[in-house]
């Protein structure tokens, strides 16, 4: 019987799982056997990446794999009921890494880097693929650390018009503009199931982009009179959204 219970139980993601058996391979398996020194009979929590947690007991361990018996299955407590898509204008340097890490901890559902007129960072296709892959790895680690039941996708780079077109299909799409707008608290309501939000890069949004967003039905919103950095604004907005929708 495992002595590790409740929140102390280690958590891992695996796509090799059903209601009876699970398999963990690679780095996570090595971590379980060598670093954590877990043994047959001990329990852990496995997540399928689709919002379900599985309480499991280790059945066998070898150098590269851990086999488990599934004891029970339940919805992941760490997943918010509100699915938030963050459309983040590509920032300079490694700021995207920080935004991804903290946004995942706060409960974001999906992150879409977008290219706007005032983006200083404009990597070529190869550079953007590398940046996206790195951000996806950071999302995975943040999801593990924060007890998420899903690993939010970091999507490929989108142009601003394509992003606005995509977001316009959501019930509530918010466009955070440094030039003013409706206070965020007036746009949210408890129980909202799906929200999209747009945050600019260091230079904010161009007036033509604001016009396009409003024409497509996005709601221009403000986070108050203070000017927030591009890495602060999405985290502030996510915190408010999670609180207002009953997920914080």
Averaged pLDDT, please?
Answer: 93
Unreliable residue runs: 1-7
Structural class: alpha/beta
Rg measurement, Å: 20 Å
* Major sheet size, sense and barrel closure: 8 strands, parallel
What general outline do the C-alpha atoms trace?
Answer: elongated
Task: Supply the number of helical segments.
Answer: 6
How many extended strands?
13
Work out the helicity level: 25-40%
**N- and C-termini, Cα separation:** 34 Å
Content of β-strand: 25-35%
Q: What's the helix-strand series?
A: EEHEEEEHEHEEHEEEHEH
Question: Could you describe the 3D structure shown?
Answer:
The N terminus is likely disordered. Strands 6, 7, 8, 9, 10, 11, 12 and 13 form an 8-stranded parallel β-sheet that branches. A 5-stranded mixed β-sheet has the order 1-3-4-5-2. The chain is an alpha/beta fold. Helix content is 29%, strand content 27%.
Descriptive key words:
248 residues; alpha/beta; 5-stranded mixed β-sheet; 6 helices; 27% strand; elongated; disordered N terminus
Concise description?
With 248 residues, this protein is an alpha/beta fold.
How are the SSEs placed, and which strands pair?
Layout: E1 11-13, E2 21-25, H1 26-35, E3 43-47, E4 52-61, E5 65-75, E6 83-89, H2 95-106, E7 110-115, H3 125-146, E8 153-154, E9 158-159, H4 160-167, E10 172-176, E11 182-183, E12 194-199, H5 207-215, E13 219-222, H6 233-244
Parallel strand pairs: 1-3, 6-7, 6-12, 7-8, 7-9, 10-12, 10-13, 11-13
Antiparallel strand pairs: 2-5, 3-4, 4-5
Helix pairs in contact: 2-3, 2-6
């Amino acid at each position: 019987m495992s002595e590790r219970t409740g929140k102390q139980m280690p958590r891992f993601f695996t796509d090799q799982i059903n209601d009876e058996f699970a398999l963990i391979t690679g780095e996570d398996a090595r971590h379980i056997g060598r670093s954590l020194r877990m043994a047959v009979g001990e329990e852990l929590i496995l997540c399928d990446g689709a919002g379900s947690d599985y309480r499991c007991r280790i059945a066998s361990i070898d150098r590269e794999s851990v086999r488990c018996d599934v004891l029970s299955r339940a919805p992941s407590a760490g997943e918010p009921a509100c699915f938030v898509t963050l459309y983040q204008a590509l920032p300079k340097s490694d700021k995207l890494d920080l935004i991804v890490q903290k946004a995942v901890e706060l409960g974001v559902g999906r992150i879409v880097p977008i290219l706007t007129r005032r983006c200083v960072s404009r990597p070529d296709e190869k550079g953007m693929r590398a940046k996206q892959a790195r951000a996806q790895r950071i999302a995975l680690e943040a999801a593990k650390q924060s007890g998420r039941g899903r690993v939010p996708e970091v999507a490929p780079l989108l142009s601003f018009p394509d992003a606005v077109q995509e977001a316009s299909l959501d019930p509530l799409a918010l466009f955070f503009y440094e030039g003013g707008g409706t206070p965020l608290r007036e746009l949210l309501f408890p129980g909202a199931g799906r929200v999209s939000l747009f945050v600019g890069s260091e230079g904010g949004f161009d007036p033509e982009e604001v016009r396009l967003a409003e024409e497509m039905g996005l709601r221009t919103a403000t986070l108050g009179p203070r000017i927030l950095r591009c890495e602060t604004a999405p985290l502030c907005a996510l915190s408010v959204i999670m609180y207002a929708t009953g997920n914080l």
